[in-house]
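Lab notebook, bench 4. Still working through the backlog of constructs that have no structural model yet. Next entry is a single chain of 397 residues. Request: give me the structure tokens for it.
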Amino acid sequence: MAHRAPNPNPAGSPSRRWPMNSNHHHGPLQLGEAAWREIDLSAIASNYRAIRMAIGSTTKFIACLKQDAYGCGAEQVAALLCAADVDAFGVVSIADALAVRKAAPRKPILMYPGIGPNAVELVRKLDLTITISGEEDLRSWLSTGIPLKIFVKVDLGFWRAGVAPSGLRHLIDLCASQANIVVDGLYAHLSEFGQAGASAPEQVTRLLPLLKELEATGHRPATIMVSSSESLLRHPEFDMDAVDPGALLFGLTGAHADRRGLIVRPALSAIKARIVALKASDDSMGAPPDLPGYRAAMRLAVLGIGWGQGMPRYPRSKTAVLIRGRRAAIVPPVHLEHLRVDVSDIPEAKLGDEAILLGASGAERITLQDLADAWDTDETGVACGLRENLRRIHLGE
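Model written out:
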């Protein structure tokens, strides 16, 4: 069961649940951490159930855990979803494949484009399903001589990896002619260009006649997949045989339209840092810099987090953190390991207090969207932009 760590700041943020499934089994107090992020595993479990209920039991759920499960920890998330009986996983890097395989010894793992035949021994050892995006790609893998399980990817207008629709039939036929190739699936990712590109229905229309041709020749793969997070929300009619949501699974929905009425919440629930220095300025320090946020006789707190943990070097003006339930403005610039905030109006602030960059303190809250706006990115950009040296604390269900 989760257990509570002592709260050094009873007047500040609410009490926390310390990890039942952390990669270090300690809270930041015990570890002496100056900054950390909190990952709510119960949010991921709840989001998974909501998506599973929406797509039904006959559509496969391939959980996309790329970028270390969107910053949430691929091994911990894979263990959670494996226990929930997810059908398969999708990853990009070998590091993520190793983490997922450790947590899910028997689940299929689809490798998105990103590795080549030089990784063939790991592909064999980890029993990975690889993506093939064209004839040259296929022949390079055939040169390894080992049996391969593959998904063929087709580019319907994303202008990224995948064979062009005009070459799909030939590529599938070529795969079918190889004794050591098993084609488990065919997939596409629909473009996110908005009005600058073809709509999702237009892209899928390019695929449907090709599927009929493959069906007629007996070469239609068993699994057809085109919907990931955004298209899953906008176009329930495109669920097909499988879906591979990533951002949606972690509650990173932003302003995406939702025809399904799904209720999800962010897995990244908090980013926190401690006050590591605290002082009142005086004339002996010289005149305050002629920069926004500086003034004479101000009280400054220094937080143990900076752009070295993934913060932007120049967040938007009027960006604040929460200390003891009140807002404290960030005083730029952000440094590699430190961040200044103005606590002139929070006289009770003390050395060691928590500062909330994301989350709640008292009646105040900074949401993930608030932080994305302040950091000039989107919700996924915040979650995936945090560095590995910002420790994860996994909160139990």
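Notes after review: The chain has a mean pLDDT of 91. Residues 42-243 form a domain with the TIM Barrel fold (CATH 3.20.20.10). Flag for follow-up if needed.
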